[in-house]
Amino acid sequence: MAETAHINECLVCSAPNTSLHFGIDACRACTAFFKRATVLGRRYPCRKGQRKCEVTRESTIACRGCRYDRCVAVGMKYDGPMRAYNGPADKFEVECITNEPSTSAVSMLDQIRSAYELVSISRKAVAVYKQKELTLLRKCNRAQRVPHISQEVYTGMTEEMHTENVKNLSQEMWTFFQDAFPSLSELSINEQAELFRCYLPNFCLIDTYFRTWKIWRAFDNYVMVTASMCIELKSPYSWMSVDDDVKNRREMVELGELHVRDQVSRLAPLFEKADVTDCELHALLALALCEPDMKTDASDTLLSLLDSIRSQTLREVHRYYKVEMMMADFSARLGNIMTICHAVRECNSHFQEYLRTYATLFDAHSADKMMEKLFL
Questions:
Q1: Angle, nearest 10°, between helix axes 300-319 and 278-287?
Q2: 222 three-state secondary structure
Q3: C-alpha span between 157 and 180 (Å, rounded)
Q4: Is 85 helix (H, G, I), strand (E, B) or coil?
Q5: How many Cα atoms within 13 Å fall on the side-chain side of residue 133?
Q6: Range of lowest pLDDT (10-19, 114-123, 166-175)
C-alpha cells in the first residue's frame, strides 16, 4: 500500500511541501530560484534596504534579496554544475545594464511587439475573432452590454463562450510563444511545453490588466477577460457560467470571488502606478518568461537562453527610457515594471492553488478541465 506523503512547510516561504530539495524541506519554486541565483552569480538587493522583508507566498511584494538570504540561512546548498559569470556580484541588476548596443541583429522588444500584434492587437487579426465573439454575445440572453464611450463590451459568459475562449487562448498563445522567442526552438519539445505551461498564466495576467487599464483607466468596476468581455467586480454571480440548480453554486462563486478580489488588490495598484506603455508591456511579456516555476530541473541550455532574453530585454528597455522617453533617471519606472513582474509570479502561484482547490471541490465544466491541463 502506498504511503500518504507527509506534508511539511517550505523552510524558506512556508508553502506546503512534500519532498526534500537541496538537502532541506523546500518547495520547487524556492529551490529553482536559489539554483538560478547561484548558477548565474546573482546577488539581489533588499527592496526596502533593511534585509528584514517577510518571505512568504502571501507577501504582496516579493523581495528577492531577503528570499536569497533566507535560502542560505536555512542551509540550502547547490553543488551542481556552474556556468561562468563575469558580471559584478554585489550591484543591483539595473546597474549591470550597459549602454552598448545589443549584439543581436533582431530587437527582442520588436520581436515581441510583432508577435503580440499578430495574435492579440492587429485590427485584421482581432476583427475576425472579435466579430465572432460579439455575434455570440448579442444573441446571448445572459450577456449584458456595459456602457462605454467607444468600446462594445459585455458582461456575462456562457459555458460555450468560456470553452471557445480557452481553446483560442491555447492556440494563439502557443503561436505567440514560438514567434516571440524563436531561440527557444533549441530546447526539446518537452522542455518547451513545460516552459509554456509556466509562462501562459503570467502572460494572461499581464495582458488582462494592461487591457483593462487601457480601456477603463481604472479597476473600480470591471476587469477585461477577452477582447469584448469583462467581469463586473460588484456582481460575482455574473462571473461564472453556473446555473442556479448546480450543486454548491454559492460556494463556487464565493471561492472565485475571493480569488479575484485578492488578485485585483495585488495587481491593480501596480498597473495604476506604472501606467504601462506599449514598449513596457512588451518588456513585461519577456521578463515574465525568465524565472519559471518548473516541475523539473531546468537544463543549462534553458538557463542560458532565458538569461540571454532577460539581458537583451533590459538593455533595450534601458535605451527606450533614455532615447525615446528622454529620461536621465529611469530607476523608478523600471522598478515599477520589475515589481509588476514579481507580483504576477506570486499571483500565478495563487491562481494554481485556486484552480487545484476548485477542481477538487467541484465538478468542473469542460472549459475548466481544459484550464487544468493548460495551467497545472
A1: 160
A2: strand
A3: 30
A4: coil
A5: 25
A6: 114-123
Answer whether 83's CB lies under 8 Å from 303's CB: yes
Contact 99, 268 (CB under 8 A): no
Q: Where are the alpha helices (DSSP H) in 223-361?
A: 249-274, 278-287, 300-319, 331-361
Q: Which residue has the higher pLDDT, 7 or 266?
A: 266
Q: Which three cell numbers stand for residue 9?
A: 512547510
Q: Considering only CA atoms, which of 39, 40, 108, 35 is closest in space to residue 293?
A: 35
Encode pLDDT of 78-98 as tens digits: 776 654 444 433 333 443 334
Q: CA-to-CA distance for 253 and 240, rounded, in angstroms?
A: 7
DSSP 183: G
Which comes out higher in pLDDT, residue 83 or 281? 281
Question: How is residue 343 written as a grid cell?
Answer: 507580483
Distance of alpha carbon 21 from alpha carbon 79, whole angstroms: 12
Asked whether 301 and 186 are in contact (CB, 8 A), the reply is: yes
**Separation of alpha carbons 192 and 190, rounded Å:** 5
**pLDDT above 90 (res 184):** yes
- Are 109 and 173 in contact by the 8 Å Cβ rule? The answer is no
Q: 223 to each of 96, 255, 352, how far by Cα in Å?
A: 36, 17, 19
How does pLDDT run across 11-62, given as a tens digit for each residue?
A: 888 888 777 777 788 888 888 888 888 877 777 777 777 788 888 876 655 6
Degrees, nearest 5: CA angle 366-369-371: 115
31 touches 76 (CB < 8 A): yes
CA distance 321 to 328: 8
Provide the angle, in degrees to the nearest 10, between the axes of the packed helices 108-116 and 159-180: 150
Q: Which pTM value belongs to this model?
A: 0.69
Please give the pLDDT value at position 157: 63
Among 53, 62, 73, which Cα is nearest to 29's? 62
With 60 as the cut, is the pLDDT of residue 114 above it? Answer: yes
Q: Which residues pair with 223 in a beta bridge?
A: 231
